[in-house]
Amino acid sequence: MSSRFPILLAAAALALSSPAFAADAATGKKPGETFQDCAECQTMVVVPAGSFTMGSSPEERAREGVPDTFGSHEGPQVKITISRPFAFATTETTRGQWARFVKATNRPIPVKCFDYNPAEDTWGGTEGKVVNWQNTGFEQTDDHPAACISWQDATDYAAWLAKITGHKYRLASEAEWEYAARGGTTTARPWGDSVTPICNKARIMTSGTFEAISKGESWTGELLCADPESYTKPVASYEANPWGIYDTLGNLWEWVADCAAPDHSKLPTDGSPQTAANGGECEHRLTKGGAFHSRVWLARPATRGDGQEPVNRPVASGIRVVRELD
Fold it and tell me: Which residues, other chains included, contact 1 with Cβ-Cβ below 8 Å and sequence gap of 6+?
């Protein structure tokens, strides 16, 4: 990781140093404070308790051009109150961090994940091809986010962190994830409602990626970032949100704890995950945030990915963990 990473984190922590962000008496940690529980562990940042409005408004969806098939999942808007601070990974889990977990646990290397099918604009099976986190089909280093990850993989990784540290690591609930990704803002993206800056702030579809996967398909009338580089970028390649969190928009979709549900109508208002008891469909799990191949309107905190079976490994899905504060 480059030397700019701790500098940027320190700047984000400084922005949260006002009296309103005093240390939590129960944990001794202030919002904006960063820490690691072990050398192999993720860098975590403390997220303050608070309330926010989850989901998107009809006005946001209309302005962004969100298709109804996606937009209907982003409402109704719900006020969520998170009563205690928690720690959120500053970056997606890297390929190097994932490799250490695989080695430490003797985890088998999977034989395939889901690859892009340009004819159908879907990510489908890869019969006859070996595609996994070691061989995604595109170039990655240990500083890139670990890709080709299933919900079960992500859950097992968090459980391993909990075991080796003695602290409560897990996946974020959808509400916790969106709260942290917004970073205290109320706009479509942490920097505002304007789409214009996005190519300098998030890894979404570039001309390089489009050339690699489009096979002649069109991209009419939509923003395409003019960049010959393709696929994922190393974590923290773009600036952090106001709470010191990187890459919640683009790079890879990130798994959350919730069972899939069609909308927010039965979402718990305390920030806990949606389960079967309150309208979730637990044969499928959710992702958030968009990825390197995403259209611009997908790269928003309110966006919800398609539900996936917990054992599916989409090539554009990765991990971000939460740690409960003791």
Answer: 143, 234, 235, 236
Give Dmax over CA atoms of the chain in angstroms: 59
Q: What are 259's two structure tokens?
A: 């069972």
Distance CA 304, CA 292 (A): 15
Give the global pTM.
0.89
The residues facing 132 across adjacent strands are: 135
**Residues paired with residue 242 on neighbouring β-strands, in sequence order:** none
The amino acid present at 61, given as its one-letter code, is R
For the chain, how are helix, strand and coil distributed in percent, rounded to 5? 25, 20, 55
Distance between CA 99 and CA 64 in Å, rounded? 38
- How many CB atoms lie under 10 A from the CB of residue 163? 11
- Give the Cα separation of 105 and 223 in Å (integer): 42
Segment holding 283, helix H or strand E:
strand 281-288
The tens place of each residue's pLDDT in the chain, 326 residues long, gives 444 333 334 434 433 433 334 444 445 789 999 999 998 899 999 999 999 999 999 999 999 999 998 888 999 999 999 999 999 999 999 999 999 999 999 999 987 887 555 444 444 444 446 789 999 989 999 999 999 999 999 999 999 999 999 999 999 999 999 999 999 999 999 999 999 999 999 999 999 999 888 765 677 778 899 999 999 999 999 999 999 999 999 999 999 999 999 999 999 999 999 999 888 899 999 999 999 999 999 999 999 998 899 999 999 999 999 999 98
Cβ neighbours around 152 below 10 Å, total? 15
Cα separation, 144 vs 308, whole angstroms: 23
The DSSP bridge partners found for residue 244 are: none
